[in-house]
Specification:
With 209 residues, the protein is mainly α. The protein has helices at residues 2-16, 21-41, 45-53, 64-76, 97-130, 134-157, 177-195. It contains seven helices and no strands.
């Protein structure tokens, strides 16, 4: 999964970079080839897609999670069932945290979280436009697509709209300490580039004492 995300961010950065197409072609071919190899090495990829597309075909096996997610969200209602409402659901604090929040606080909470994430991603895209220094701009361009996947895939996965993947929502789900620190470090990097957007790349002058 980490390799797939890295290749995705690299291809987006490659598309954004202004270089000759002939120079990009070998990198495109290598990246797509590596992605396909990583996809084929995951023997459960096609089974997950089939379970997502036809959950009723195996309701006690691969389709169980999707049916459980849809039933949980459907029964939550607009205002949910309240804080601490019991819910028998695996990985409720990590991969399916969004499902639990909808179950507890209703569809209104889901819409507010989705709105907050959308505004956050729009702000990151705005940062890309405000930074003129090439290295800082390309750095943020490579980060924004990855953050988009890390945010929107678990949200849509938790509602049954995308196949299940081992991704936690940054800053919201309970995740490994290394993953959480990486998310905060990346966000700090983006904020640092934006803060120094007017000084990066300009020559500094030093006054002799």
């Amino acid at each position: 999964m980490n390799l797939k995300l890295y290749l995705f961010g690299f291809v987006v950065l490659l598309m954004y970079t202004k270089t000759v197409k002939k120079e990009k072609l070998p990198l495109y071919i290598t990246s797509v080839g590596a992605y396909l190899v990583a996809l084929l090495l995951d023997y459960h990829t096609f089974d997950k897609l089939l379970d997502w597309m036809q959950p009723m075909k195996d309701p006690e096996g691969g389709g169980y999670f999707y049916l459980l997610v849809m039933e949980t969200i459907r029964s939550a209602g607009f205002w949910g069932k309240g804080f601490g409402a019991p819910l028998q659901f695996p990985q409720i604090d990590s991969d399916f945290k969004f499902t639990y929040l909808i179950h507890s606080y209703g569809w209104i909470a889901g819409l507010l979280i989705l709105l907050a994430v959308t505004l956050f991603m729009m702000r990151l895209v705005r940062v890309v436009k405000e930074v003129d220094e090439p290295y800082g701009k390309h750095l943020i361009v490579s980060i924004v697509p990855l953050f988009s996947v890390y945010f929107f895939w678990p949200l849509l996965m938790s509602t049954g709209m995308l196949p299940i993947a081992q991704l936690e929502i940054p800053f919201l789900s309970y995740s490994r300490i290394g993953t959480a620190l990486a998310h905060f470090a990346v966000l700090g990097l983006v904020l640092s580039v934006h803060r120094h957007r007017n000084s990066i790349g300009k020559p500094h002058t030093y006054m002799a004492k």
